[in-house]
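Worked Example 4.2. Consider the chain below.
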Amino acid sequence: MKALEQAFKASDVLLQGSGGFGLIMVDLAGISERFVRKIPLTTWFRFRSVAEKLDAPLVFIAPCSVLGTCSSLTLTLSAGQIRWSVPAAGSPAHARLPAGLDFQVEVAARRSFKKPAQPVHSFSAQRRWA
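Applying the procedure from the previous section yields the following structure tokens:
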């Protein structure tokens, strides 16, 4: 529970002074589903009301679907694979860097009065550094 409390406190700090952030992500994936399901619905609604006033999206990564009607968009990601770079000759084995990330995306729910999102079947990201 301490990790969960720390994640929410850090999120609150970022949300209160959120100038300059293009995206705020809270990773709860390493926290037991049992604890994540115990988070009161009022907590999720509070985060939603604060996030709706921001220019940056607030994303929660969770081991299970818990936000329900509090979320504007629910995505389910699966079949994730990291593509690694090939180290140069003579480089140590730990010199590999992530070269890309591929996974399947399913739009599970969307709460919006805007035009609905088009379905996305897969996503691929490439690194933009080194």
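The mean pLDDT is 75. The first strand starts at residue 24 and ends at 27. Compare this with Example 4.1 before moving on.
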